[in-house]
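[job 4417] fold queue: 2 targets
>>> target A
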Amino acid sequence: MLRLTLLSSLVLVCFCETNAQPVASKPTAVATLHANRMRVHGLQPGHPVQNIYQYGNPPISIDFDGSDKPCAGMSSAGLWIGGKDSAGQIRVSCQTEYPNPYPFTAGPYSGHWPTDSLNALRWDRFFGVSRLDLEMHRADWADNGVLDNPLPNVLAWPGRGNPHFKAQVGFPLPADVSAPFRDVNKDGIYNPYDGDYPHPPALAPNVLAGQMLWTIFNDAHGKFLGVPVGVDVQFTAWALDCSGDNLLNETVFFSYTITNRSGTTLDSVAVALWNDPQLGKAYDDYFGTNVLLNSMFTYNQFNHDAAPNSGDPNSFGDNPPVTSLTYLNRPLYKSMYHYLWGLCDPVVAMLQPLSDPVEFFHNLHGRWRDGSPLRDGGDGYDWQGQPTDYAFPGHPNNSADWSMFESFGLCFSMSAMVPSMYVGHFPPGAVFSFDAAFAYHRGEGLNNLQNVTYGFDRIEQLQVLYDDRFVGACPYTPAPTIACGRATATATVSSARATSCPSAQAGARRVKNARGRSHGRPIKPRTGA
C-alpha cells in the first residue's frame, strides 16, 4: 500500500535558535577509537559517530588498514534526550548529522555564563588510554607497590578526586566529575599512586580495555530548539583487543552517565542513540528491531551491495554483513524511525527532517512527527494495523513477519533509527546510565538474510559476556618479573599481552554452550564507577 512520489529536490530545514541564553562554541575535539578490527573515526562530544569522510575513510570501518573501506553500519549517530518540565513544557536536546544545530557543548554543566563558555574551551578534549598504558601501569605498581614511572595519560585521567589532575591539565577537576576507574584501595578517590587505573565498570578487574576514550558535555548553551533539557553527560567509548575472538574484535562499546542539572524535576523522559544507518553503499539499507535482544539491526536489501561488477571499494559486494546496536543494561522502550528523504511517501510532510521540539519528543516516544502512533504493517504510518511500540520487529527471513524486507520492496529511501529507553521521572541530581554495544556480523558464505540470524546469535553471546563482566575474555596476565622504565619493560609487557588471550577461547566455548537460553533474559542495570 506504499505510494511512490518523485521528489525533485531535497528540502533542507533551517534550525533556528530560540534559546535566550548565550551560545557556546561547537565542540571541535575529534578522537578515533581503534583497538580492534572496528575503527570509529570522528568521535565528538555528543556525537559518538560523526559523518566525516576524511581521506576516503568512512565514519565506521572494519579491518582498517588505511585504504578505502565501506561504511560499516552507521553514517552518523548522536545522543537524544527529551522530557517535560514541571510547567509541562517539552524540552529536547537531540544531536543529528545536520550541520546547523548542536545541542551539546563541551564540559560539565555549571548553569552560569560565562563559566560554561570557559568550560567549553577547557573540556573540548578527549582523555584516553590504551591497553599498553594499562598493562605498563599495573605492572609498575605490582612490582613493588610503588609507582616508579607514572604515565601522563594515567595521571591525567579525570577520575573522582584525582589530586594530580590540575598539575597535568592546568585546571581543577570538579568534585562531581568522574571518569570510570578501578579503585584498588577502595577509598573512593582516583590516585594512580595507589594503583588505581582507568577501567569501565562493565569489565571485571583483570579484563583490560584495549582502548578507552572519555569526555564530558552538556546542553546548557548549545544551539538547538527551545529550552535545553538541562543535563551533563559523561561519555566513555571503549573496546576490547582480543586476539582470536572474532565477536569482541568486531564490537565497540558506548557508555553514558546522564545527570539532571536543570534544578527542576523532569517527567516522561526518554533517551536514545539516534543513528543514520549506512552499510556499504547507501540507499539499499534496511533495518529492524529484535525486541527481546534490546537491539536494532541494519542489513542489506539485496545480497549484493552496490551495482554488479562495479568494483566499488566503498561497497561490501556479495554476502553483505549485518550490524547491530544493543542496549546491554537497559530495556528497549520504543523503536521508531523517521524519513530523511526518499521515494517512500506515507505523507509528503513525513519526508522532511524533524524541525520542532514536539516532533523530536514524539519520535522518542515511538510516534510519528505529527503525534500519530506507529502502526503494525506497511511503513508503519499509512496503514490500518494496530498501534505498536517497535518498528519492523519481524525476522526478514519470515514472510509472515512485519519487516522492512517484506513491506518496502523496491522502495528507495534514507531513514534514521530512534531506539529509545525510558527514564520517566527524573528529579534534580538524578543519574541515568546505560551501556550500548555496536557490533558487526558477517558469517562466512552467509547471504544478506542469513547474516541476520547469525547476528542475532552473536548478540546473545555478547549479552552473556557482558552479564559475566567479560570474565575469561582477554584477561590481564601480570608478568612474573618486570622492571618498569628499563629496557626490558616494553618487551616484557608485550609478552604478557601476547599470552593474555588464549583463555578467551574457553570463554567462547562457555558462551556457545549458553546459546540455548531464551533471548528474553532480564536486563540488569549496571551503574557505578
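>>> target B
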Amino acid sequence: MLLRFRLIALLMAVAASPLGAQSVAPWRFGLAGGVSLNTSGVGYALWGPDGSTNPDRANGQFIADVGIDGSGIAPYAGLLAEYISPSWWGLHARLAFDDRSLTAIDDRSYQVGDRYLADEFAFTARYITIDPRLRIAPVPQSPLAFTLGLGASMALQSSVAYLADGTAAPVTYDIPSANRVALSVNGGLTYDVPISVTSATRFTLTPFVDVSWMMAMRGVDQRAQNATTNALQSISARIGIAITRGAVNEALAPDPDEDEFYIKVRPSASAGSQVQSVEHMPMLPSVFFATSDKRLPPRYRLRKLRAYDSASSYYDVISVAAGLLNAVPNVTLTLVGYDPEGGNGLAMAQIVKTRILDLAFVDSARIVIRGERMPPAATPTTGLMGSEQAAAMEENRRVDILCSDPQKWPSIINVTQRAATIESNMVVDVVSSDVLQPWSVNISADDLPNTRTFGPFDGRRAVIAEAEVPRGSSNRIKVAVKAQTVEGKQLSDSKTVSLGTDPAANLASERHVLTMTMGEADPTTRWKSYVEANLSKHLRNGCRVIVHGHTDDIGLADVNRKLSYQQAERVAMMIQRIIDSRGLQNVELLTVGHGEDAADGVMRPETPEGRMYNRAVIIDVVYPEQ
C-alpha cells in the first residue's frame, strides 16, 4: 500500500514538474506509430457496384440507424513535429498513414420470414493524413499534455468487398461516391518520458492515446442523407508511442559524460556593481499607530515631497494626501481609524485629519472621519503567539485613507542608485529527469579552508547572493550539489568556475513592486492587468528579468520561503506569456524565493509598514550593461 501511494505521489509530482525541459530547444521531430480501433457509422445508402442498389435491397442498405455498424483494427504510423513553448501552449502535427479499414454488417434493413438478412461490407479505406493540433500543458513545461485540432486526409484506397447474405463469394469494387479528401476532428493525451540526453540532443518517448472522428468519407446518393455524418464516417481510438529528437540549448547542455543529473553555474559578477533603478511601487494608504498610543509616530514627519528611496517615500503618505486635495478640487477623503483593543479609532482618524489640514488649505468638510474596531482585510492573528501576535495586531491598529476617486491616488516612482546585489548573484541550475527533494549547494574557494553550504532549495534553480560567495585570491571556486530523489536515489555533480573580476558594472533597471495581502487566496491574479499594461512595455530583447518573492517575518521561515517562491513563480508565468507573445529574444527569466530575508526587499520588517511592503513580489527588469 505504501509503495502504491509513493508511486501515485511520484506520478503527480512528475506531471507538475518540468523534468529539465527548459534545457531543450522548442522544436523536436520524430516518428509515431500504433494501432487504431476503428468503428463506423455507415448510414443508409445505395451500396451496389454501379452506385445503384441490389435488386433485393430496393431502398439501399443500412436503412435502420443503429449508430455503430462495424469495427476493425488497423495500423497507424507517421512523422511527428512539435513546438513546445515555455508557457502552457505548443503546436503538434502529424503526417501519417491512417488505415480506417473495418467490417460492417447490415442486419437491420431487410426481413425475410422470421430473420433479417445479414449483408457484410469489408471496407478498405486508407489515407494520408495531415493532422495539426494545439498542444495544451496543464502546467507549463510539464510532460503531460492534451492535443486538440482538425485534420485533412487524402484517400489512397477506397474499396469495399460486398458479401450479400446467402452468397458464397464477395464482390469487390470502389466505394461509390467516395470523397477524395475527408475532414476529421482529433483530440488526445500525451506524456513525455526522456530517455537520453547528450551534449547536443535529447530523445524522448511519448506514449499517446487519442480519438479521431473522420467525416464525409463518401458523398450522398439519397436526398435524405447528410454528407458529414450519415453517408460514411468512422471514429478511431488510437494507442501508440512516439520517439522524438530535440536539440539541447548550449547554455544548459550537459557534459558529454553526464546523462542523468548535472548542474550549470552562472558565476557571480564583480563585487561593487551598481544599478540605477526606476522604482514603481504602490502608495498604500495607511498610517500605523503604536499599541496604546494615540500620538502620530515620528516617522510620519511633515516635509515637502522630494526624491527618496521607496522605503522612506512611504512615510510621505500624509503629505501625499494633502497634495492630492490641493491638486484635485473634486476629490474628498474618508479617514477610517481602526483600533481592535482600545477603541481609539476615531481619535486616531482625527489626528491624521489635523495633520493633513496643516498642509492642505482646503475646506475641512472634504475630509470625513470615522472609527471602527477591525479593518475589513484584517491581518489574521489566529494561531499566533507572543511577539508575532503583537506584530499582527499592530498592523490592524491604523488609519486608512480612502479616496473618493481611487484612480487619482498616486503611486511611488523613484530613481535610485543602489548596489546591484540580486543582479550580481550566482545562479546554479539543476537538470535532472528525476523528481528531487530539496537540495543544497556547497561552495569552496581554492585557497580558503572552509566550505559554505547554501539551501535547501526547491525547484530547479538556486540563487546565491554575490556577497555570500567565498572569494579566494585566485577567484576560482568549486560548486558542488548533492541531491536525493523522492525514491531515495543519491545524485551529485560539481563544477569549477571563475568569479567575475572586471571593474564594477553599471546597470540600469526598472523595478516594479506588487504587494500581497496576508491571507489573500490568490494575490498574484490581482496584478495581472498591471503586469500586462505597465511592466510589459519595459521588456526588450536581451534583458534579464528577476522575479523575487518576499514575505513578512510572521510564521514559520520554511513555509514563508516556499510561499514566496510560489508567488514569484506565478508572476513569472505571466511574464513568460508576454515574452512569448511578443517574440522577444534572449530574455533571461529568473525566479527567486527569499521568504523572510528582506535583503533585496523594499523595507525592513521591524515595523508594520515594513511587513506590509515586504509581503510582495518584486520584478527587476535589468538591461544589458552600458
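[job 4417] complete. Note on B: DSSP finds eight helices and 30 strands in the chain.
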